[in-house]
Amino acid sequence: MKKTIEPGTYTARAQAWAWDTTKDGKPYLTISLDADGAVVRGRLYFDTDRTDANGRTSAERSMEVLRAMGLRTTLRALVTGAERIDTGRVSVEVVHNDKGYPEAKYINAPLAPKVFQAPTREQMLELIAAVDGGAKPAPQRAPAPRQPPRGFDAGEGEDSIPF
Q1: From CA 87, how far away is CA 14, in angstroms rounded?
Q2: R_g over Cα of the chain
Q3: What does CATH list as the number for 8-108?
Q4: Does residue 94 have a pLDDT over 70?
Q5: d(CA 35, CA 30)
Q6: Strands 90-96, 102-108: parallel, antiparallel or unpaired by DSSP?
Q7: Cβ atoms of 37 and 2 closer than 8 Å
Q8: How many beta carbons lie within 10 A of that of residue 128, not counting itself?
Q9: Which tops the pLDDT comparison, 147 or 96?
Q10: Among residues of the chain, what percentage have pLDDT more than 70?
Q11: Residue 133 pLDDT > 80
């Protein structure tokens, strides 16, 4: 593992995580992230009192990040150890703290592509027909006939094993 990393935005994966408590006594998740071969520490908070400009709480944003990291069900599954969060990747903005160590300023789920108007089913079928040239799927081959096991000939009562 690299010891240092330049400030910037990287794709990262969780390596280890543990629950900690803020000075105000609220739980948060501290995470060690692998960003371009360097260990970067980050935190996810679960405050439900304040919202951002889009009306989302830090708990909602943190759950979005956890789902991108691989959480499939609820936060309870992570708390109890029933699920892990090291299978998915997230975007992390790396900065250096006062002591010069890298840390995550922001941890975000990857951006979803922006769709202005999704095509209809009919439009997609037309596209597939045009691109595939109307090709039909290859026919399924019939299974090979089954051969009797070698070594014993049940019909004649003799075997072909030389012992």
Answers
A1: 8
A2: 28
A3: 2.40.50
A4: yes
A5: 15
A6: antiparallel
A7: yes
A8: 12
A9: 96
A10: 82
A11: no
Predicted model pTM: 0.66
In tens, the pLDDT along 48-85 reads 999 999 899 999 999 999 999 999 988 888 888 888 89
What the block records as the tokens of 35 is 């960003």
| Three-class SS of 23-88 | CCCCEEEEEEEEECCEEEEEEEECCCCCECCCCCEHHHHHHHHHHHHCCCCCHHHHHCCCCCCCCC
Own/partner pairs, 74-80, CB within 8 angstroms, 24+ separation:
75/46, 78/29, 79/19
Q: Which helix (H) or strand (E) holds 132?
A: helix 121-132
DSSP per residue, 79-129: HTTSS---SS-EEEEEEE-TTS-EEEEEEEPPPPPP-SSPPPHHHHHHHHH
